[in-house]
Amino acid sequence: MRIAWITDPHLNHVSSHDWDQWSDRIASTQPDALLISGDISEGDDVVLQLRRLADTVAVPLYFVLGNHDFYQSSIARTRQAVIAASRELDALNYLTDLGPIPLADGVFLCGEDGWGDATIGNYEASFIRLNDFEQIDDFRETSPDRWKAKLQQLGAESAARLQVKLAAVPRDATDVLVATHIPPFRESCWYEGKTTDDNWAPFFVCGEIGQTLMEFCQQRSDCNTTVICGHTHHDGVATLRENLTVYTGAAVYGSPGVEAVIEITPRSQKQANGASDRPVVELVKNLA
Ligand SMILES: [Fe+2]
Ligand SMILES: [Fe+2]
After folding, report:
1. How far is 118 from 113, CA to CA, in rounded Å?
2. Gap from CA of 41 to ligand 1 centroid (Å)
3. Does the domain formed by 2-284 have CATH 3.30.450.20?
4. Per-residue confidence at 273, pLDDT binned at 50, 70, 90?
5. Ligand 2 mean position to 8 CA, how many Å?
6. Taking 60 as the threshold, does the pLDDT of residue 182 lie above it?
7. From CA 20, how far away is CA 98, in angstroms rounded?
8. Could you state, in order of their start, the residue ranges of all structural domains in the chain?
9. 35 C-alpha to center of ligand 2: Å?
10. Residues 59-95: tens digit of each pLDDT
11. Residue 40 Cα to ligand 2 middle (Å)
């Protein structure tokens, strides 16, 4: 199975011509499915973009939403609209609303939006204030002295949902692929080849999701977990444990791409092919 991984396409910044080129680029990777790790567009446009993409690519689309997907709207209204569209269109699969999805023998896909949840770094001393606070109703309608609590609440809610999903992954699973928008660890929060400092970390790391992933990987040491995320627009790989690797994808506004193809070869099939040393979930970057 081949999954084309896309992150942060920000399609509201993309011209019609570039959109067509991008969809041709996706098709050229010959995917069996697409996986998008958020920042698809903005709240007033995200459903339209998802429908357009589903009509164009003719393969299942798995995705989570990023902070920009809630701009010009509220978090609840956007999620409701996306859930409604996903229930109507078979090709659309909003992972935040779904339990573990079997991809291949012993391999499952889970996802959660996540949020920069002010649990890592130093929120009080940070000079950063994201556009989120002006562009998303939930923050505009909350007094600034409650923003930190709101961020923590959003991270905790995402982590609680992910915990339920991971607990539902069958005991004999060999691999789990997790899609989320916000890097779950400081070590996976890349900017120009370096990991984040205390100013940016509160808004660019979802510590609660990180903790949930770490606990799952400690409990299930026989299961490999591969996490893909975006949000920083800068790429990097972090190995947190022997069975926990996080890939963060790059992005450029106005120029969407394909971050990698994720190849999934079930363990049973690899053994039959005599290639049992290769990972079950393998990322192929630098696509031709
Ligand atoms: Fe983004
Ligand atoms: Fe983002």
Report:
1. 15
2. 9
3. no
4. confident
5. 7
6. yes
7. 30
8. 2-284
9. 16
10. 999 999 999 999 999 999 999 999 999 999 999 999 9
11. 9
